[in-house]
Amino acid sequence: MADDERAFQARIDAGIKIEAKDWMPEAYRKTLIRQISQHAHSEIVGQLPEGNWVTRAPTLKRKSILLAKIQDEAGHGLYLYSAAETLGVSRDELLEALHSGKAKYSSIFNYPTLSWADMGAIGWLVDGSAIINQIPLCRCSYGPYSRAMIRVCKEESFHARQGYDIMLALARGTPEQKAMAQDALNRWWWPSLMMFGPSDADSVNSAQSSKWRIKLFSNDELRQRMVDQTVPQAEYLGLTIPDPKLKFNAETGHYEFGEIDWAEFHSVLKGNGPCNRERLRTRVTAWEEGEWFRDALQAYADKHAK
Amino acid sequence: MADDERAFQARIDAGIKIEAKDWMPEAYRKTLIRQISQHAHSEIVGQLPEGNWVTRAPTLKRKSILLAKIQDEAGHGLYLYSAAETLGVSRDELLEALHSGKAKYSSIFNYPTLSWADMGAIGWLVDGSAIINQIPLCRCSYGPYSRAMIRVCKEESFHARQGYDIMLALARGTPEQKAMAQDALNRWWWPSLMMFGPSDADSVNSAQSSKWRIKLFSNDELRQRMVDQTVPQAEYLGLTIPDPKLKFNAETGHYEFGEIDWAEFHSVLKGNGPCNRERLRTRVTAWEEGEWFRDALQAYADKHAK
Amino acid sequence: MDKHNTFEYLLRLGDNALILSQRLSQLCGKGPAMEEDMALTNVALDLLGQTRLWYSYAGELEGAGRDEDALAFRRDAHEFRNCLLLEQPNGNYADTMVRQFYFDTWHYFLIEGLTRSSDARIAAIAEKSLKEVSYHLRRSGDLIVRLGDGTEFSHARTQTAVEALWMYSGEMFAYDGLDQAMVAAGIAPDGAELRSHWLAHVGSIFKEATLTMPPADAWMQSGGKQGRHSEHLGYVLAEMQFLQRAYPGATW
Amino acid sequence: MDKHNTFEYLLRLGDNALILSQRLSQLCGKGPAMEEDMALTNVALDLLGQTRLWYSYAGELEGAGRDEDALAFRRDAHEFRNCLLLEQPNGNYADTMVRQFYFDTWHYFLIEGLTRSSDARIAAIAEKSLKEVSYHLRRSGDLIVRLGDGTEFSHARTQTAVEALWMYSGEMFAYDGLDQAMVAAGIAPDGAELRSHWLAHVGSIFKEATLTMPPADAWMQSGGKQGRHSEHLGYVLAEMQFLQRAYPGATW
Asked: Which site among A234, B264, C2, C54 is 20 to 30 Å from A44 CA-CA?
């Protein structure tokens, strides 16, 4: 290991944040760019499944809360791209990678939102999982990223609570509403567990990321945390988690759960999810149709800078 | 008057049909092309206000009847264009004139269809007026036109009855449905009266057209026929014609009615109707977006003709 | 045969026809040529007529007092049983026609098989529909050939549509328990057989059209038949069902 | 002042805000730039908030037990009182922004006038909204300048939108009996005055944007305020109201 690298690792071990101007190993930079931009892309693409229900929200209050949430997501996207930009890559380059299919976004957004209950399930399960994933990152080694995550997590916890509140209203509603809630839970449960990524045994690059403190807990640990947190909530709602193997283990104090269908996970990741093509096409179309607009703003700025 | 022209007029006076291959005065040809193509355009554009409710028809049966009606209209358009083509003009030229705004279509289609009751009112009032206008044309002097009109009128009378049937169901329905029917009558009544064109006093070219037997009754005569026919129907429906001056004149045996707002008529004709721009744009867009398709069919035909 | 299963199967038949008819109706007066306007309305009308026959029988079998309109206008998206293919947006006219061609081919072989159904009523409806679906199949196959072998542009556009919609074609043959039960009862024709007919016909038309057929073993979407749809269906229904929902209890 | 008139006037205010908010919501996550996505949602949210204030007051005045959701979700198109401008489709982004700019300019001067309303509750809501509508006005005016004076393409596209939507701008100032009654009661600001402010502001922005202003005396469409809408509104409502219609009596 070179001196630079040793010093760098020592700072991390000492809990000192790395800042944009500091020296860092190329692999650290690259890993972070990939991780942060993937997160940013997820915020941006993540607007779409929820945007699908804004115009059909059942009350003005729910519509308002949902709109505010989507606005937050665009905001998260913006400051995550800014955090990535501190690592020497431009937002346009990152978007280009998204649009060409090179960069990934969270696979969860490749599932369709089929009923209003999905707005509840996404808040409750998907944002819930996201928070569990992200809270440790508030303490990650890269300063701009850790600060962005602090801001993101604060808002995400609102979103999760609002999602749970939607589920609560449905669970206490008419039989049809309760069925809607149960159906949403059925469809979103397993994909939410998959959000934590492959089992530790199959996870690549984890060791290095841990050492660099940009991954602070293993996928399986975080997934367990999500299950432990969510099962009692589902019980309170009177809904059934779609996993016949689920049971509480009094000895460990944790819930045991059934095997995840990793074939589905990899299939969706490969592009076979119900909405992969559509999500990307929507974003690419928005981008392409917006080109004349962005060009106009640039042209105006150029003229008036002279 | 030249010999040709005298012979031509003599044939018309004798009730002999003019056929495509026969000699005819240029003005006769031009007037007919204008009249027939305007009628054809009206059938085509007329699909749009009704097409607006096909996807929202309240029962499968009503949807089916409405679809069949729209199909008939496309059919009428087709054979009217064919009748015009016998006069030495191509369908594409006629469409070009429509799309460029040079040719007119019936102004009635520049009003929006705002509720399901409009499907009733259009059948009852608009098709009703169209039939009154067209029945005499079944006996007009130009053979291909008169034969087309016979076919058209047969189907139109179905449409008018189906429209009346929609009104009847609404008039016998809930208070909301009855209000819907009354509102539709309020909006379509005067425009339907305007369909017969300006008052005879202000009507141009009428004398010549009468002599050529391509106009067999005056606008005002036909309009009176429509009012006389429709008022008792409205009474049967329990709906009120939106004309405080309307009253039966026992001496003449006709209904007297209020003054038509000719300023509105001319304004809509000039392009200021609620939907003028939209109707034309819809047609032009369909035409332009269909160009590659028509080109493909042509290319295929060319290849396989070789 | 269990009535409930037959009821569910009839919903699949009716929902397919209704949703495609509804999609085609959105194009009313907006087709690329007048002859196409006529043909589109014609096909939409045929499918609507078939829908009404399937629904009426379904309602009778169910015996819960639901008529064709109750089934069409008062079920939410998760209760619809149409294949995902049919709810896909009209897109450009190549998309519209490829969707139609994939469906028509399957529909023809299905209806043809259903004429031999052990359920006499189903056989009779199929018999009545056979002429219509034969015409649909001829028409859409013919158009695919002309678009594929037309201009360079039409070829490219059609090929794109062929690929984009391919992943929705498999669901029609992916027989679940219900479909299997129908086959076992002699009510419905075998899925594997339909598939081989479908592949052969689509392949021969594509060949004539100079189009490349995507791999038969490609990943296929599913879910529609079980009520798990794409995001499109909700919008289709919101529009279609508005009047019945907004004025409950009214007679039209 | 007659409560019923004020109720009707409040519906106009609320419906304008709701329908435009709904149109903007259709663009969620589909704007031409991320900053625009944020801004669009922001404006949609502000308008939605204002809607709720107007509707709540309207419901109270009516005293028939209708709350904001009853007014939003359980009226059909002919009962809506928004100006035609606001229900026009989003079109391209120049259309979206010109529609916004026409509305924002009117809305700003209206809300500013309403802060002096003789109806204390209306004045308070206007006061609360003034900051929001000032921001909207600044933002859309600024964008119009940049689009008009941007590229040749953006100039042409914006000019086209300016002309296409112009005929819907007059309705905002075309005061009918109800509006006049509101002016007479000191509840609403004068229409002619609003119009002259509007023309001056739009004119100055267009000048800066190198856009040509259409003639002030051009033919203007109307009807929305009286419940005679364009064909677009029915579709907007069918989508917006689906859940409330499909699940009557449910609490969300």
From this structure: A234
Q: How far D74 CA lies from chain C's nearest CA (Å)? A: 8
The partner residues of B255 in beta bridges, in order of sequence, read: B248
In a 13 Å sphere around the CA of B82, the CA atoms on its Cβ side amount to: 14
- The pLDDT of residue B200 is 81
Tokens 């519906």 locate to D11
Tell me the per-residue pLDDT of C66-100, one tens digit each, with 9 for 90 and over: 999 999 999 999 999 999 999 999 999 999 999 99
Is C173 a domain residue? yes
Q: State residue C213's pLDDT score.
A: 98
> Would you write out chain A's pLDDT as a tens digit for each of its 306 residues?
789 999 999 999 999 999 999 999 999 999 999 999 999 999 999 999 999 999 999 999 999 999 999 999 999 999 999 999 999 999 999 999 999 999 999 999 999 999 999 999 999 999 999 999 999 999 999 999 999 999 999 999 999 999 999 999 999 999 999 999 999 999 999 999 999 999 887 776 678 899 999 999 999 999 999 999 999 999 999 999 999 999 999 999 999 999 999 999 999 999 999 999 999 999 999 999 999 999 999 999 999 987
CATH code at position C241: 1.20.1260.10
The answer to whether the CB atoms of B274 and D230 lie below 8 A apart is: yes
Q: B110, B43 in Cβ contact below 8 A? A: no
**Best mutation target, D78, D222, D229, D231, to test chain B (most B CBs within 10 A):** D231
Residue A270 near residue A262 (C-beta atoms within 8 A) = no
Q: Which two tokens stand for residue B148?
A: 């087309």
C and B touching (3 or more beta-carbon pairs closer than 8 Å): yes
Which among C234, C239, C245 has the least Cβ separation from residue D245? C245
* Amino acid type, B98: L
- ipTM of this predicted complex? 0.96
Phi, psi of B205 (to 5 degrees): 65, 5
The closest of B161, B140, B182, B154 to B229, measured between CA atoms, is B161
Answer yes or no: are the C-beta atoms of C87 and C23 closer than 8 Å: yes
The 10 Å Cβ neighbour count of residue D49 is 17
The answer to whether B and A touch (≥3 CB pairs < 8 Å) is no
Q: Read off φ and ψ for residue C5, nearest 5 degrees.
A: -60, -45
Query: Is the model's pLDDT at D215 over the cut of 70?
Result: yes
3-class state of residue A244 by DSSP:
coil
Paired tokens of B50: 């009704």
Residue D251 lies inside a defined structural domain of this protein = no
Round to whole Å and give the CA distance between D130 and B241. 46
- Residue D93: both structure tokens together: 């982004």
CB D58 within 8 A of CB D79: no
pLDDT at C98: 98
- Domain span at residue D224? 3-246
Place of tokens 């090179």: A102
Confidence bin at C1 (pLDDT 50/70/90): low
Assigned domain for C251 exists: no
Report how far Cα C56 is from the mean position of its chain's Cα atoms. 18
Q: Number of residue pairs across B and C with CB atoms under 8 Å?
A: 147
Which element (helix H / strand E) includes C144? helix C120-148
Residue with tokens 């509750």, as numbered in its chain: D121
Q: Does residue C252 lie in a domain region? A: no
Yes or no: say if D221 and D88 are a contact pair by the CB < 8 Å rule.
no
Total structural domains in chain D?
1
User: For residue B79, which of B158, B22, B159, B149 has the smallest C-alpha distance?
Assistant: B149
DSSP B40-81: HHHHHHHHHHHHHHHTT-SSHHHHHHHHHHHHHHHHHHHHHH
pLDDT tens-digit readout, C133-181: 999 999 999 999 999 999 999 999 999 999 999 999 999 999 999 999 9
Distance, CA of B63 to CA of C47 (rounded, Å): 12
- Number of C-alpha atoms within 13 angstroms, CB side, residue B267? 14
What is the number of other CB atoms lying within 10 angstroms of the CB of residue B16? 12
